[in-house]
Amino acid sequence: DEDIEWLAELPYTITIPSRLLQQPQDSDYETMQDQDVIVVHAGLLPNVSLDEQHTRTMTTVRDLISDQETKENIAKAWKGPELVIFGHDAKRGLQQEDFAIGLDTGCVYGKQLTGIILPERKIISVDASQVYSPINAKD
Fold it and tell me: In a 3-state reduction of DSSP, which class is residue 5?
C-alpha cells in the first residue's frame, strides 16, 4: 500500500539545529534554546550516537535497565548535550528535565494531548475528547 511505503521511508528522529531556534538579535524575547533538539517517538539510549540507535529502542523504550531489575527513567538518564523530546510513556506523564522532555500525557487513555512550543519550551495541553483505548493494567 502506498501509505505504508510512505511511512516506512520517514525518519525515526527529527533533529532541529539550535541555530533555527534562535531569536533575532533585536527581539524582545531571550531564547532559552541553545542546544539542538531531537524529536523521537519513545526515547534514545544515553551515550549511544544517533546513527547507532536501534529502531526498536526509538519506537518502544520506556526504561533503561541498569542491572537485572533496576529501571531508570529515560528523561532522567539523558544528559545531553541535545534536548530530546519524546513520548510513549503515559504512565509517568509529563516529564521535564534539563536535557529531556517527555510529552505523553495519556491522550489515548482519555487524559490530555500535550505539545511544546520551541524555543520557549512552553508546554500546551488540551483534554482528550474521549477514551480511545482503555488503560492496560500491565503497562
Answer: helix
**Mean per-residue pLDDT over the chain, rounded:** 89
The three-state secondary structure class of 8 is helix
- Separation of alpha carbons 116 and 103, rounded Å: 8
Reading the block at residue 62, the C-alpha cell is: 520506556
Cα-to-chain-centroid distance, residue 63: 13
> For residue 136, with 0-12 CB atoms within 10 Å meaning exposed, 13-18 middle and 19 or more buried, which class applies?
exposed
**pLDDT grade for 22, boundaries at 50, 70 and 90:** confident
pTM for the full predicted model: 0.86
Q: Which H/E stretch holds residue 6? A: helix 2-8
Distance in angstroms (rounded) separating the CA atoms of residues 111 and 106: 5
Closest CA to 36 of 19, 24, 13: 19
At residue 72, what are phi and psi to the nearest 5 degrees? -120, 135
Please, are residues 120 and 91 in contact by the beta-carbon 8 Å criterion? no
What's the whole-number mean pLDDT along residues 51-76? 87
Quick check: 119 pLDDT over 70?
Answer: yes
User: How many helices (H) and strands (E) in the chain?
Assistant: 3, 9
